[in-house]
């Protein structure tokens, strides 16, 4: 069983996150400066998933603006996909949203990224539109996805069920 911990991303994590970003997005990726700027941004929160060896396996970032959270990035190392790491990170974001009285969560995702779209739909995100030629590397469109109000019973019950079904990993939130 994979044991992981979720931790807030710090400046000490940026080198490793940048290497992971290059693996996942070899042709067009965020720079180290982008990550440094994001973790210094008071509106932003970034988290990493680390294994027992303290290797970063996945990360997520989002902005909180008034009553909305905007997920800016979510990435999982290719060797560690399908182990619920993205779900663990989304759970952390949603918990932060509840703690900060956020009502809605939004994001953009590549139209071709069917596994990510399926994951977001599991968390009750719905496509509400398209951003034409959003991605700079190839001009691909992005789906704009949005949740209903996360305080509604339907969302809360679904979220609770997802949280209770995370069973392939042991998570220590630090």
Output the CATH topology: Aminopeptidase
Q: Helix segment count? A: 5
H/E series: EHHEEEHEHEEHE
Distance between the termini: 19 Å
Assign the CATH architecture. Answer: 3-Layer(aba) Sandwich
**Low-pLDDT runs:** none
Radius of gyration: 15 Å
Number of strands: 8
Overall SS class: alpha+beta
Overall average residue pLDDT: 92
Number of domains: 1
CATH class (first level) name: Alpha Beta
List keywords for this structure.
alpha+beta, 5 helices, Aminopeptidase, eight-stranded mixed beta sheet, 32% helix, 8 strands, 174 residues
Explained architecture:
The chain is an alpha+beta fold. The chain has five helices and eight strands; from the N terminus they run βααβββαβαββαβ. The chain has a single domain (2-172), classed as Gcn5-related N-acetyltransferase (GNAT) (Aminopeptidase), CATH 3.40.630.30. It has helices at 14-24, 32-40, 85-99, 114-122, 153-164, and strands at residues 2-8, 44-51, 56-65, 68-76, 104-110, 125-131, 142-147, 169-173. Strands 6-7-5-4-3-2-1-8 form an eight-stranded mixed beta sheet, sandwiched between helices. The two termini are 19 Å apart.
What is the topological layout?
Layout: E1 2-8, H1 14-24, H2 32-40, E2 44-51, E3 56-65, E4 68-76, H3 85-99, E5 104-110, H4 114-122, E6 125-131, E7 142-147, H5 153-164, E8 169-173
Parallel strand pairs: 1-8, 4-5
Antiparallel strand pairs: 1-2, 2-3, 3-4, 5-7, 6-7
Give a quick rundown of the structure.
The protein has 174 residues and is α+β, with helices and mostly antiparallel strands.
């Amino acid at each position: 069983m994979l044991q992981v911990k979720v931790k807030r991303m710090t400046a000490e994590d940026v080198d490793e996150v940048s290497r992971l970003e290059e693996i996942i997005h070899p042709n067009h990726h965020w720079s180290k400066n982008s990550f440094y700027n994001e973790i210094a941004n008071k509106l932003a929160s970034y988290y990493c998933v680390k294994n027992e060896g303290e290797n970063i396996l996945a990360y997520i970032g989002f902005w909180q603006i008034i009553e909305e959270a905007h997920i800016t990035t979510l990435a999982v190392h290719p060797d560690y996909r399908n182990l619920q790491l993205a779900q663990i990170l989304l759970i952390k974001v949603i918990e932060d949203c509840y703690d900060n009285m956020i009502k809605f969560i939004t994001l953009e995702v590549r139209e071709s990224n069917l596994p990510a779209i399926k994951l977001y739909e599991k968390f009750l995100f719905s496509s509400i539109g398209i951003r034409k030629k959003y991605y700079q590397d190839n001009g691909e469109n992005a789906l704009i996805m949005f949740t209903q109000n996360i305080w509604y019973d339907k969302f809360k019950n679904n979220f609770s069920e997802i949280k209770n079904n995370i069973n392939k990993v042991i998570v220590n939130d630090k």
